[in-house]
TrEMBL record:
This is DUF4179 domain-containing protein. Keywords: Membrane, Transmembrane, Transmembrane helix. The chain crosses the membrane at residues 42-61. It comes from Phytohabitans aurantiacus. It comes from the Bacteria.
Length: 433
């Protein structure tokens, strides 16, 4: 299965975006921990406008309607920073690119270049502009729309403006428009200095048992920004960045990660989800099992296998599998498959009782092209959990006939040595345990 990044946060804290009680951790686990990047709304000008970070702590409002509110903010009023702050020719080019690209009818004043500087990939900048009015918006709740902001990045054809973002005065996590990938291979991360310590993780890897491994490094700013070398981000995003300490709740949105995860703006589709409840599971769980819910202890047990700070696309070719069952000694059994992008998937089995006492007992890499992709031998002679979505399963011991084990998933006894898998195609194959 793959839990979704929203289930766990809800269970742990509320279920919002990362443990600190992030939302969707469980669903992140449930859906292979894959988190879909929000799709952008296109303007007539062809630019995407998305919600960006709040400029919280800097702005105060006294009005209650949609009237114009003048407030001081580093994103609109402070002097331009960066080593190109006095390059008037470049600043003119940046403002002209902004004017040609935005074409919004609710802007006022002149575009403000917050930062302009040289990077290993060329000249870049970040621009903002105020709006005519500051209406209260629904998302985020009680926030006021103050203006728009966007990165201007170097390309072979000259400066290009990226996703236009709405800037709010309150009610949202600040810093969402703080980072961008640069270069054809997107191997440079540009991060703006918004006055708070920032950490980044350049890549994600896996321990032998499937646990997520990330190194958190401090970002050192100079004159308003930092340019960081990162692995090429061609087809997936391995980088994570956020206010220190980096967590699900402090992550910073990287503006053009959607271009990587959804090339051409096309949706990748959803993976097929399989939830199996084994016969007798209710004896261990105490009631009818609800595959959409996880006990708090189960959520915590799965957390090390979830990339709670990263951004990933759904892999529609990798099924999302969860199995609920009970062991012969009366413990609760829960298996989830977790997979990111086109990385290898992992099946993780936990055992426990009640709401809090759960332990990871065995993990296994998953190859969905195998006839029996999941086979997890449980400790203490509790049997072997096997799974092949939608297939008919049979098992046998060293001596004896084939025994029916149901469909999709089964807990076969410790003495079983072979499993026969008959998929919908009807061609049976045998797997040794």
């Amino acid at each position: 299965m793959t839990m979704n990044d929203t289930d766990v946060r809800a269970v742990l804290h509320r279920a919002t975006d990362h443990l600190a009680s992030p939302d969707g951790l469980v669903e992140g686990v449930r859906r292979g921990g894959r988190r879909r990047v929000a799709r952008r709304r296109l303007l007539a000008a062809g630019l995407a406008v998305v919600t960006a970070g709040s400029i919280a702590g800097v702005l105060q409002f006294s009005g209650t309607g949609g009237e114009r509110i003048d407030v001081a903010s580093r994103l609109f009023d402070e002097a331009t920073r960066g080593d190109l702050a006095r390059d008037q020719a470049f600043l003119r080019d940046v403002r002209e690119v902004w004017r040609r690209a935005t074409e919004l009818d609710d802007l006022r004043g002149e575009p403000h270049v917050v930062w302009a500087g040289n990077t290993p990939k060329g000249k870049a900048a970040y621009v903002t502009q105020r709006t005519m009015e500051n209406p209260v918006v629904v998302q985020p709740g009680d926030g006021r729309l103050l203006g728009y902001g966007a990165f201007v990045v170097p390309t072979a054809k000259g400066p290009r403006i990226l996703t236009l973002e709405q800037l709010y005065g309150s009610g949202y996590v600040d810093g969402n428009s703080q980072a961008v990938f640069l270069g054809p291979d997107r191997d440079t991360l540009l991060v703006l200095d918004f006055g708070r310590p920032v950490e980044y993780s350049p890549s994600m890897s896996y321990a032998p048992d499937g646990r997520i491994v990330r190194q958190h490094l401090p970002v050192t700013f100079r004159d308003g920004a930092a340019s960081l070398p990162v692995p090429p981000q061609r087809t997936k995003v391995t980088v994570a960045v956020g206010r220190a300490p980096l967590s699900r709740d402090t992550r910073i949105h990287i503006v053009n990660e959607s271009e990587i995860l959804f090339p051409g703006g096309e949706d990748r589709g959803e993976p097929k989800r399989y939830d199996y409840v084994l016969p007798g599971a209710d004896l261990a769980w105490g009631a009818a099992v609800d595959p959409t819910k996880r006990p708090l202890g189960a959520v915590v047990a799965f957390e090390p296998f979830i990339d709670i700070v990263g951004t990933h696309a759904v892999n529609p070719e990798a099924p999302s599998l969860s199995v609920f069952g009970g062991t012969p000694d009366g413990r609760r059994l829960l298996i989830e498959t977790i997979q990111y992008d086109d990385d290898p998937g992992h099946a993780v089995a936990i055992l426990g009782r009640g709401e809090s006492e759960y332990t990871v007992v065995v993990t296994q890499s998953v190859d969905w092209t195998e006839p029996l992709p999941v086979r997890l031998r449980l400790p203490d002679g509790q049997g072997t959990l096997v799974a092949a979505p939608e297939a008919k399963l049979e098992y046998r011991a060293a001596v004896g006939a084939w025994q029916d084990a149901g469909r999709g998933a089964a807990l076969v006894p410790v003495g079983a040595i072979e499993v026969r898998v008959t998929p919908a195609s009807g061609v049976a194959r045998t797997a040794r345990l």
